[in-house]
Amino acid sequence: MKFKYIKKSYKYIGLLALMLIGQSCSDLLEEEVISSIGNDYINTPKGFEDAAKSAYSSLRNYYGTQQGITLTEFGTDLYATGADGGYKGFHFYDAQLQPTVDYLATIWDETYRGINVCNAVIERAPAATVTDAIKKARVAEMKFLRAHYYFLLMQQYGGVDLRLTETILPTKKTSRAPESEIYKQIISDLESALPDLEAKSKATDYGRATKPAAEHLLAMVFLAKGNSSSKAADDYSKAATYASNVINNYTFKLLPDFASVFDQGNQNHDEVVFAVQYTMDPLTNGTGNSLHLYFGMQYDVQAGMVRDILNGRPFKRMRPTKYCLETVFADRVNDSRYKKTFKDTWICNNPGTFTNVFDNSKSTVTFKAGDTTIFIPGYEMPLAERAKKPYQVLVPSRYDEALFPTNKKFLDPLRPDRTYEPGSRDYMCFRLADTYLLLAEAQLLTGKVKEATDAINMVRRRAAFPGKTAAMEIKQANMNMEMLMEERGRELLGEQIRWMDLKRWGNLVERVQKYNPQAAPNVKPIHLLRPIPQTQIDRTEGGAASFPQNPGY
Length: 553
Known about the structure:
Blueprint: H1 21-24, H2 45-54, H3 66-70, E1 79-81, H4 89-92, H5 102-124, H6 132-157, H7 179-193, H8 211-226, H9 235-248, E2 272-276, E3 318-320, H10 322-328, H11 337-341, E4 342-343, E5 345-347, E6 352-355, E7 364-367, E8 372-375, H12 383-387, E9 392-393, E10 406-407, E11 427-431, H13 432-445, H14 449-463, H15 469-472, H16 481-492, H17 498-505, H18 508-515, H19 534-538
Parallel strand pairs: 8-9
Antiparallel strand pairs: 1-3, 2-11, 4-10, 5-8, 6-7
Helix pairs in contact: 2-5, 5-6, 6-7, 7-8, 8-9, 8-13, 9-13, 13-14, 13-16
């Protein structure tokens, strides 16, 4: 049973400053009582619980959203643009990527709202009329969330305003803390939270932060820190220790079948370390997990097809690069992940005879309900062979911005109708396969190549087709960073992580130039950071002198 978040409209006056008011309100702020709930409500058992739950809701602004995926998968080596949609400056790294882009401010403002709720709960816990055990547990959760929020902000924007107390009154005094100080605070929050978080694979109240979730995040943080200007000699070894703790000290298990990790009816499974909760209840789901919209190709205007709930509403945003399809997913004999990541078959839901089909091996096709209408073989099937097929065959030479292999991890057939946008899938922020790959990376960077090979082979064996397990195992001589980077691409494609992986590895520019022709002409080192939202600078006393823009914007 998952717990329900209290949405971001949590309305008592002391927490009305869920936002950093100097950063996300207009210059002229008029306070107005919008609820009869008093400022001391947080001290009551119900109010304290409501406040703690509301701190989680800002995660829904980032995970499972268009703005979140724009900042994490656009403009990488694995994804290029589809035919539709805006915000393509994040793909192209061109003049569209400006401090005035609303997604930058949306992520910024909502993340700071979450931080401010965390600060309020931590500060007000001593006065709350709940047991000491509950106080400790909720404060630990808030420290996990605050660290999580600051890590996301710093990875995207660099040094940001480090606020550790509740912002109640309007303020325009803000400044940028150095990354070293923010890393120190993130690590302090997470490590001090560990003793009071539930030391279980699944929280009693499913969806809350746990000790293994904090340890997984610490592994991520130490890997990022080890590749930053704040690095210390023991960062990688600490990352390995925390990742090993998650793997060895709890009951997490890799599911036997890669495809089952993404089964919508099986979301609270043994591989989930931490997930953002969504629901089918429209009153509490907000905008929902909308990732089902962005990876689909334009199947719905093709012969024999109309849009339906099962195949989704294709917004055509995310198109796999040639490198992604032909190099990362090159092995389709031993490795099941191409077959289980990409949808390759469409079944007729619009019977009839059709002309002007995209498959140039035939001039007309006729389908009855239940027939295959489109098949994507994943290789350049010869024209003569395609002509024998009673369906359309989409081969790589015919891929374009509207027709391409569709990542099916996020499809949501439980939506009530074919136009409905708010999906109900939980979003897996951390899962055990990622933990193994973080461990492999940390071990490789500390020279423990055998151990790194063992860790990566855990993930690769699970991905094998039946009877192909031995063929999937790599040898120690083949364990290197290129293998690790490709393996993370195969396992985690589309899971809101690639841009930050490339940033951590320090090769964003190199790999985008090499593998993403759309972005290659424009990407440069300044793009390792996003622009600071112009609203933040404008609302800071002293403007850019007090809160400087990132270089190059």
